[in-house]
Specification:
about 220 residues
Length: about 220
């Protein structure tokens, strides 16, 4: 699951327009932003096995980002952070928290059993990753449906649709690149973690642009 996670950000923006889009884009991937940072720091570990069907990722050590307990902690922390720093209303902060937690729920659908319930606890995952075509269909379907909902919500607020459409197209392009440029075999190194982290941060920056001057007389 990669760009499919951003479907949660699109849906959240439609539900709560007061939440900045860059915040939601960061929220839906906050767990992976933490993961890539921990890869760089050597706190968590992963490798790539090209012999695997579907996804080639072997995520064998990520208790502090991808366990259920950790996901709940990241979600609560994100809600408190946006409440204190961005001064968002409690409802908007709750939407941010739910967007963060959506990451674990979607990962549960696609990951092999590598998601711990708590650090060093039982591992779960429905392994849709083993079936590349259905998994990709799920990702793109979520992106399309939630993207359409977001576009429709912008129109009800008298905002132009093209910034949302441009971001969705950018997501699709990223997914295509990810499909045809798989990571090299072996342990995922710190430099790979930096590249992954930069990609997430670039998406956050691009998402922020959708909240700029996208109205037809209203904000």
């Amino acid at each position: 699951m990669f760009v499919g996670h951003y479907a949660a950000a699109f849906a959240a923006k439609a539900v709560e327009p007061k939440a900045p889009m860059w915040t939601l884009a960061a929220a839906c991937q906050l767990i992976d932003i933490g993961w890539s940072s921990f890869i760089v720091a050597g706190v968590e570990h992963a490798r790539v096995d090209p012999t695997l069907q579907g996804s080639t990722l072997v995520l064998y050590d990520m208790p502090w980002t991808h366990s259920l307990a950790a996901a709940l902690a990241w979600s609560i922390g994100a809600a408190l952070l946006v409440k204190l720093v961005l001064r968002l209303p409690w409802w908007a902060s709750t939407i941010v928290a739910l967007t963060v937690f959506s990451h674990w729920l979607l990962d549960f659908l696609v990951h092999r059993p590598d998601l711990e319930l708590y650090p060093n606890g039982p591992k779960v995952g429905l392994a849709l990753w083993n079936y590349a075509v259905p998994e990709q269909a799920l990702e793109m379907g979520l992106l399309a449906i939630c993207g359409a909902v977001w576009v429709a919500s912008r129109k009800t607020l008298a905002r132009t649709a093209w910034p949302a459409i441009a971001l969705i197209a950018f997501m699709v392009a990223l997914q295509i690149v990810a499909m045809f440029a798989p990571p090299p075999a072996g342990e995922i190194q710190a430099q790979n973690g930096i590249v992954i982290l930069v990609i997430y941060l670039v998406v956050v920056l691009v998402a922020a642009l959708t909240d700029l001057r996208g109205s037809r007389g209203k904000t």
